[in-house]
Amino acid sequence: YMCHPQPCDRYIHGTVVEYYCYPGYSLANDYKYITCQYGQWFPQMQLYCIKD
After folding, report:
1. How far apart are alpha carbons 21 and 47 in whole angstroms?
2. Which domains, ranges and CATH numbers included, belong to the chain?
3. Contact indicator for 47, 41 with CB cutoff of 8 Å
């Protein structure tokens, strides 16, 4: 399944969010943290989980 982060305009600049998957799934890439920078999430990518 894919996660689409909400716009970060309600978050303080520098806020860090950690993504994780339900048991039996793993993130499909190495990024599990995204940071709100100037109203945008960085890195800008779609995060998704794949079945183990």
Report:
1. 10
2. 2-51 (2.10.70)
3. no
